[in-house]
Fold ABC transporter domain-containing protein.
Amino acid sequence: CLWYCAPFFVSLVSFAIYVSIDSANQLTAEKAFVSLALFNILRFPLTMLPNLVTSIIMTSVSVKRLNKFLNAPELSGYVTRDLDAKHAINVRNASFNWKKDTDETAEEDSNHSTLSGINFEIKKNSFVAIVGSVGSGKSSLLSALLGDMELENGSVNICSSQKIAYVPQQAWIQNSSLKNNILFGKPLDDKRYQR
């Protein structure tokens, strides 16, 4: 209410001060109408002031986020690729964390690794699914295999001669039946569909 009444109060106070400062100042119709026209011209910039403040705050937040992202340290690139590996994926005594341990963070936070003591082998030409309850570390394990986490110790080796696919948890389905989502617009092959 005050914001919308501000132009009226500004003109009222301006005219009152103009008249009260010096008795020689007379408020004529010419001066009043010119002043009111100027106050009306200033009304739009005054109403845009809150939008300007909001935009400046949003710009500041965006610049801070971009600065943090662009100045972030590079990942170490710990995933090795061996052409003649015995297994498609081999993880030995690996521990992973989302943040790189520096001296400062180690003193401040005695938090353990996000994933620790990981040991597994995936045979060539096998189909593997990672399943578990919410928050059990499935996504973190897949991110570790992709090289998106920090390796604290251990090793990760992926056979580069194998075809390995990563399917993230972001499912894309049609607003249709389960059968139509499986067929995905192709004709029904009953044997393949049942398999």
Q: What stands out?
A: The longest strand covers residues 150-159.
